[in-house]
Design brief:
This protein is of the alpha+beta class. The protein is built from six helices and 18 strands. The strands form five sheets. Strands 4-3-15-8-9-12 form a six-stranded mixed β-sheet. The longest helix is centred in the C-terminal third of the chain and has 11 residues. InterPro entries: Fumarylacetoacetase-like_C (IPR011234), Fumarylacetoacetase_C_sf (IPR036663). GO terms for molecular function: acetylpyruvate hydrolase activity; metal ion binding. This is Fumarylpyruvate hydrolase.
Length: 232
């Protein structure tokens, strides 16, 4: 048995729909600029390839949780998206084999410090400050692929205080899910427990303390989170 000098952090995990088992999360990969309409609203070039970045696993927030309004921002944005959970992986996965590595799907939010993203983009700086902060990755329960089939369509919706802000379909992804898995595996060895946020559609916007966010993708368990007071 390994003797740790300090208490190790708990294993990050997600609930699984209809099961007492948990899905252990190893890494959170994120895909930016993957819907044309969102690229246009961000004043970016739709010809550019989507951006790959990561969030720490301990940034997860579960369904029903509260997200403290984060430090170091005055422009806190939601980005609702489909999340893919992997049961296996490897390097250089062919697109034709990619779906065989999928454990299931969930609804997620890529919470963003938008003011600092603008500065990072302007100066060509890394995105960690804008994307990879505490409680920046709310993700709902995982629904097994056996219960959904391989997903290629389905409405992505987000409501803030009951008002619809985002409404699109995953069929509009620029990089499809098989392509995302294949491309990621060229750069990283994917493994069981990895999850992938596949990109957000148009309609992103700011939230404030007290806002309630309801996120859904057809066929999956919906997720609701609340924006709390300023982080201590």
């Amino acid at each position: 048995m390994v003797a740790f000098a300090v208490t190790p952090p708990p294993q990050a995990h997600l609930d699984i729909t209809g099961s007492d088992e948990k899905f252990p999360v190893r890494r959170i990969y994120c895909i930016g600029k993957n819907y044309v309409a969102h690229i246009i609203e961000m004043n970016a070039d739709e010809r550019d390839p989507p951006v790959i970045f990561m969030k720490p696993a301990d940034a997860l927030v579960k369904n029903g949780g509260e997200i403290p309004y984060p430090v170091f921002t005055n422009n806190f944005h939601y980005e609702c998206e489909l999340v893919v959970a992997l049961k296996s992986g490897g390097y250089n996965i062919p697109e034709a084999e990619a779906s065989g590595h999928i454990f299931g799907y969930a609804v997620g939010l890529d919470m963003t410090r938008r003011d600092h993203q603008a500065a990072a983009l302007e100066k060509g700086l890394p995105w960690e400050i804008t994307k990879s902060f505490d409680q920046s990755a709310p993700v709902g329960p995982v629904t097994r692929v056996e219960d959904t089939g391989v997903m290629t369509t389905g409405h992505v919706r987000l409501k803030v205080n009951g008002q619809t802000k985002q409404d699109a379909d995953i069929s509009l992804l620029i990089w499809k899910i098989d392509e995302i898995i294949a491309k990621l595996s060229q750069q990283h060895e994917l493994k069981a427990g990895d999850i992938i946020m596949t990109g957000t559609p148009a309609g992103v916007g700011a939230v404030v303390t007290g806002d309630v966010l309801d996120c859904s993708v057809d066929g999956l368990e919906p997720m609701q989170v609340r924006i709390g007071g300023p982080a201590a």
